[in-house]
Every structure is written in structure tokens, then in C-alpha cells.
């Protein structure tokens, strides 16, 4: 199935791939990149107050000459300059040069001030006033959604979250909770295995699938996210990559492909957890070794430690530190 639209709980439809403006910076280059994305066929632009390029995106939107109904525009309340939600959306609309956005999100639960129910009431007003067709959230966990849903008159239409194979395990309960409550999931940073964690266990299955289907690894990852039934928010500064992203809508992975990527992601996630534990233990051992070393050198015992300080303690702690360091390098 090619990229399509997903029906939201408020009856509107959202294109299931978006071009994000987070890393574009500002100025003319930013407008050019949004221009490029629209010209290759992206009709869903994802921006935010905090990306500081809504104005540049707005110029590209205007220059595209597209009818407003043919573009889907998302922006987010990022709490910039301490402004409230109503003032912020009006600023965003001015920057973007549009009368409404299709989707307005609270960028992060900690920005929902003074608390989630009060902030959500303001979001409901934004929708009632016609400034946003749909309202939603981003980076909300299950506990945040529970608080919101307890008093919401309008359910959030979507929750935009981090989703890639190394976090899919821990994000699955959140995705399931959202789906059970008819809240769509938007996935960002799907390409992390290529951009930030190359050489990890996900590389193998992704490369194998890419070779078998004669496509690029990034296309496999986007197809993987699409197979999860989520809306993909991605980006690129390169025209060929953007064309590849859109073509990835035609890639249908088998359930086995998706499982292989999930399983490799789980292995990577376990390794990362092990690394974190080892790193923390190594730091603790190093601190102990240094304290033991200093105390041993100075020949005194600080009463707060209540430990028998000797050179052999310092030696043991140092050895433990190097063993942990070796383990960390191994993992
Ligand atoms: N709600 C939130 O809190 C957040 C939302 N977002 C949204 O999601 C959008 C996308 O986020 P982002 O993390 O950039 O998403 P992606 O994971 O989709 O990464 C996009 C980047 O991947 C690079 N890339 C593509 N293919 C490869 C490859 N084969 N090897 C190496 N690099 C590759 C591109 O680089 P190149 O330009 O060179 O092609 C591009 O910079 C943001 O713009 C924003 O709209 C993002 C983060 C947080």
C-alpha cells in the first residue's frame, strides 16, 4: 500500500508521512528545503514553535501555490518565551501565513502548564475557535494521557513520539494504549539506527531486506514504521532521499521482516541497558578507587565512610573499574 491517509478520531484525515523542519535551521536555506519537500510531493509539513522556522516554512507554503486544502500543516506549542497556548498559536498562524493549522500539538507534557487538564482546556478552545482542525500531544506517556483523558471533552487526535527499532519494545505499551483509546501515533526519529547508532544489531536485517528488495536502508526503516500503523514524521536535506522516502510507501514488508527488525532492536536495547549499568558501575568504582587511593596516601580514615582504608582496597577498586571498563568496551 502506498503512503495514504489515516482517519483521526475527530473525523479528519492525516497523510501518514510528513516532512519535518526541526533540523533545517532558519533563513533562506530552510525555506528552500521545505520548498524542495513540497515539490517532490510531500503534502504534510511538521513544524513547531521551538524549531524557529515556522516563518520560513510559511514562505515555502505560500510559494508552492498549493490550495490550502491540499496541504496538511502541523505545528506545536513549545512554551517559547513563556507565552500561553492561545497567544502562541496566533503567533504560529501569523508566522505560517495561514488561518488555521490542521494539527496543533502540545510539544511535551512538561510544557502543559500549570497542569495537563488546564493546558488541554486551552487546546480545546483553540479547536473550538477554528485555529486548529485537530488537537493532540507529543511525547506524552501513558500516565500523562490518563490525566488528560480523565477531564478531556475532546480526545487528543494524535500523540507524536520517538519510535525506532531500538525503542519499539518500550514504546509498544504506549502505542497499544493510544490505539485502544483511538489516538493516532506519529513516529519521529525512525531513522536513528542509521543516523545515531550505525553498526548496531538492526543494521543486519535492515541491510538484508534492502538487498532483497533492491531499496535503501532508510526506505526499509520507513516501511517498518508504516507497517506499525503509525504516521511517519521524517526529514532530509536531499532531494533523492526525499523521493526515496515517498517511494518507500510502496514497500510492503512481510510480518517476518518486521519481526526480524523488532528482535534486532530488542537485542540492541538490551545491550544499551547493559552498557548503561556497566558505565554507572564503572564510574562508581572509579570514584571509590580515587577516594580509597587518596585516603590511603594521606593515611587517614574519614569517619563518614566507616571503612578500613588500605592500599589493597584502592587496588581492588581500581581493578574492578578496569574490568567494568573492559566490559563496557566489549558491549
Ligand atoms: N515531537 C518531537 O519532540 C520531535 C519531533 N520531531 C519531528 O520529526 C522530524 C524528523 O526527525 P528526525 O530525527 O530528523 O528524523 P529521521 O530519523 O527521519 O532522520 C532524518 C535524518 O536522517 C538522515 N538520513 C536519512 N537516510 C540516511 C542514511 N542512509 N544514513 C545517514 N543518515 C540518513 C537525513 O540526513 P540528510 O539530510 O543528509 O538526508 C535526515 O537528517 C523533525 O524534523 C520534527 O519535525 C523530531 C524530534 C522530536
Provide a compact summary of the structure:
The chain has 331 residues and is of the alpha/beta class. The chain contains twelve helices and ten strands.
Could you characterize what this model shows?
The protein is an alpha/beta fold and 331 residues long. The protein contains twelve helices and ten strands. Helix 5 links the parallel strand 7 and strand 8. Helix 8 crosses helix 9. The chain is globular. It starts with a strand and ends with a helix. The model has no long low-confidence stretch (mean pLDDT 93). The structure holds NADPH dihydro-nicotinamide-adenine-dinucleotide phosphate.
Give short descriptive properties of this protein.
single chain; 331 residues; alpha/beta; TIM Barrel; 2 domains; 8-stranded parallel barrel; two-stranded antiparallel ribbon; binds NADPH dihydro-nicotinamide-adenine-dinucleotide phosphate; membrane; transmembrane helix
Amino acid at each position: 500500500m502506498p503512503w495514504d491517509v489515516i482517519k483521526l478520531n475527530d473525523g479528519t484525515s492525516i497523510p501518514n508521512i510528513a516532512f519535518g523542519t526541526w533540523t533545517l535551521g532558519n533563513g533562506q536555506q530552510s525555506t528552500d528545503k521545505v520548498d524542495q519537500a513540497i515539490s517532490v510531493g510531500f503534502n504534510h509539513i511538521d513544524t513547531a514553535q521551538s524549531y524557529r522556522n515556522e516563518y520560513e516554512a510559511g514562505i515555502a507554503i505560500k510559494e508552492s501555490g498549493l490550495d490550502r486544502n491540499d496541504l496538511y500543516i502541523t505545528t506545536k506549542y513549545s512554551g517559547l518565551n513563556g507565552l500561553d497556548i492561545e497567544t502562541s498559536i496566533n503567533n504560529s498562524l501569523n508566522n505560517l501565513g495561514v488561518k488555521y493549522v490542521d494539527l496543533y500539538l502540545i510539544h511535551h507534557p512538561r510544557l502543559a502548564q500549570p497542569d495537563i487538564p488546564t493546558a488541554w482546556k486551552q487546546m480545546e478552545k483553540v479547536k473550538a475557535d477554528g485555529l486548529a482542525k485537530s488537537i493532540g500531544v507529543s511525547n506524552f506517556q501513558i500516565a500523562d494521557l490518563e490525566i488528560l483523558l480523565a477531564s478531556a471533552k475532546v480526545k487528543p487526535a494524535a500523540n507524536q513520539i520517538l519510535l525506532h527499532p531500538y525503542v519499539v519494545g518500550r514504546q509498544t505499551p504506549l502505542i497499544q494504549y493510544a490505539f485502544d483509546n483511538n489516538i493516532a501515533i506519529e513516529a519521529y526519529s525512525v531513522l536513528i539506527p542509521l543516523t545515531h547508532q550505525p553498526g548496531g544489531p538492526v543494521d543486519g536485517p535492515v541491510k538484508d531486506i534492502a538487498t532483497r528488495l533492491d531499496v535503501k536502508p532508510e526506505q526499509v526503516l520507513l516501511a517498518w514504521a508504516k507497517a506499525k500503523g503509525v504516521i511517519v514524521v521524517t526529514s532530509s536535506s536531499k532531494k533523492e532521499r526525499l523521493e526515496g522516502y515517498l517511494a518507500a510507501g510502496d514497500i510492503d514488508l512481510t510480518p517476518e521482516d518486521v519481526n526480524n527488525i523488532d528482535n534486532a532492536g530488542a537485542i540492541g536495547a538490551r545491550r544499551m541497558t547493559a552498557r548503561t549499568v556497566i558505565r554507572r558501575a564503572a564510574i562508581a568504582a572509579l570514584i571509590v578507587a580515587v577516594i580509597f587511593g587518596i585516603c590511603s596516601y594521606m593515611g587517614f580514615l574519614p569517619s563518614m565512610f566507616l571503612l578500613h582504608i588500605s592500599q589493597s582496597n584502592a587496588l581492588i577498586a581500581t581493578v574492578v573499574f578496569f574490568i567494568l571498563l573492559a566490559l563496557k568496551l566489549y558491549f
